[in-house]
Amino acid sequence: MALARSAYAATATLPKSETYGLLSQIRRAAVSIPSNIAEGHGRLTDLQFRHFLGNARGSVYELRTQIELGADLGFIGHDSLMLLMERSAEVTRLINGLLASFRVAPGDEPFASSANSASSARKGLHR
Q1: Which pLDDT score, from 0 to 100, does residue 121 have?
Q2: Which CATH number does the domain 2-124 belong to among 3.80.10.10, 3.20.20.70, 2.40.340.10, 1.20.1440.60?
């Protein structure tokens, strides 16, 4: 949540012209991270939780890209950039740690064949 709050603070001074552009994108990505973690935690299986952790991790990378662009365009100052990058790196480490804590059962690999994936999904719903 600290990352999302920091992203909101860093974008508070973005120009009005960015209200529906970069400002909105940064805030949506920042909010998406804890939201995906919370939604995944509320799901019934580890497989579903891992899926939402993956979404959260993707949103961290999306946010990092947008923050860098905002800094390159002169909208986000160096101090805010460094704080956001440090916090996003920490969130990435935490998500990676959570992902690593799950044991991957045979057939649950993310790139298993479609037949195996369907079977795994059915099994995952009944864990």
Answers
A1: 44
A2: 1.20.1440.60
